[in-house]
Amino acid sequence: MYDEQQRLSRLITDVYDAALNPSFWVDVLRSAAGFVGGMAASVYFRSTGNETGHPVHVFGIEPHYQLLYFHKYAKYDPTSTGYFFAEIEAPMAVADIMPYDEFLATRFYREWVAPQGMVDSTNVVLDRSATSAACFVVFRHERNGIVDDATRRRMRLIAPHVRRATLIGRLIDLKTEEAATFAEVLDRLGCGVFLVEAGAQIVHANAVGRAILEASDFFQVVDGRLVVADLQTNETLRQIFAAAGEGDAAVGIEGIAVPLTARTGERHIVHVLPLTSGARRRAGTDYAAVAAVFVRKAAIESPYMPEFIARKYRLTPTELRVLLALVELGSVSEVAATLGIARTTVKMHLRRLFEKTDSRRQADLVKLVAGFSSPLAR
To answer: Which CATH number is correct for 184-297, 3.30.750.24, 3.40.50.2300, 3.30.530.20, 3.30.450.20?
Structure first.
């Protein structure tokens, strides 16, 4: 247990360093795969319809198989419906989404999973919008076996930190920056950034951050300290700042994406990155800061179209998978061949779909899905 805590602490530090330096991600994913128990790992994006996507950071998957997945097999992946149901940061394995023996019969398993020696994976959704999902996955090899309780526990330990680093990394993207100093990098960002001491004293604010303070809306300056108008949110941030002075692990998993609402009703999200460990220590030392606070406008939130349908009609993941396949492919035979299940199984799920949606024909199901795809259907 002590060795695991040591490995976890080092991994968390490396994860947060990767937020500022994307070149670290390959090594981070290598360590994450080893910690969780797997052969490979990836951070990637998927579209709502599962037809498009792209890897952001990858370790252990050959480029050939990466291209095959996103260009061909993503739409055949039967586990993808789990993204519509899963809570953020909650580990998912194949068995959480469908019977494992059914998974072994799918085209996806036969043509993409098995040839790489894989048997399972543990996924977490890091962030989700109406059009896409950011995900983190560790793939299990035959020698690792299928996902067990220990795998899930270790995934829960690191997923929140991967999420924090990924969300902040999307705001920064240092690969496009050629600034000579960290301050210049911050000033070029389109989001507000504050560097703070453990007691919330502001030691630096970028241009957007200064504009936020001048507005004196959801963020204010009181005796040189960064203060949030909402008392509960303010206490959450103060605890994070205080913990940041003790190192990355002390920051914990709270306050990864703190919501704030302006007087106008406009919503914002706050992320906090500790600056006292790893490669970030230099940036923090230069300013006597323990943390960087990033403030961005929140995207308009609306549910996934498939998620909305599944919740409204109380569909299981398998029923949702069959519904989406029927809409895309049309015939029962094509759905059975694509999903790797028997025609009789597809027909069984089709009957249940008719019952739950009060439909009589496949054409009715197509119209139902099309209706949810229209913004007027909301």
So the answer is: 3.30.450.20
pLDDT of residue 184: 72
Q: What is the pLDDT of residues 151-187, one digit of tens each?
A: 999 999 999 999 999 989 888 764 444 445 666 777 7
Is 242 in contact with 254 (CB distance < 8 Å)? no
Per-residue model confidence as pLDDT tens digits over 194-225: 999 999 999 999 999 999 999 989 899 999 99
Which tokens hold the place of 264? 């106008």
- Tell me the Cα Rg of the chain: 23
List the strands of the sheet with 192-196, edge to edge: 202-205, 192-196, 291-297, 267-274, 258-261
Task: Please state which architecture CATH assigns to domain 305-377.
Answer: Orthogonal Bundle (1.10)
pLDDT in tens, 261-290: 888 888 899 999 999 888 888 877 778 899
Q: Where are the domains of the chain?
A: 2-172, 184-297, 305-377
**DSSP states of 263-299 as a string?**
TTS-EEEEEEEE-SSGGGHHHHHHHT-SEEEEEEEPP
Closest CA to 24 of 322, 280, 291: 280
User: In the numeric block, which tokens belong to residue 74?
Assistant: 């993503």
| CATH architecture observed for domain 2-172 | 2-Layer Sandwich (3.30)
Q: Is the dihedral of CA 346, 320, 91, 14 positive or negative?
A: positive
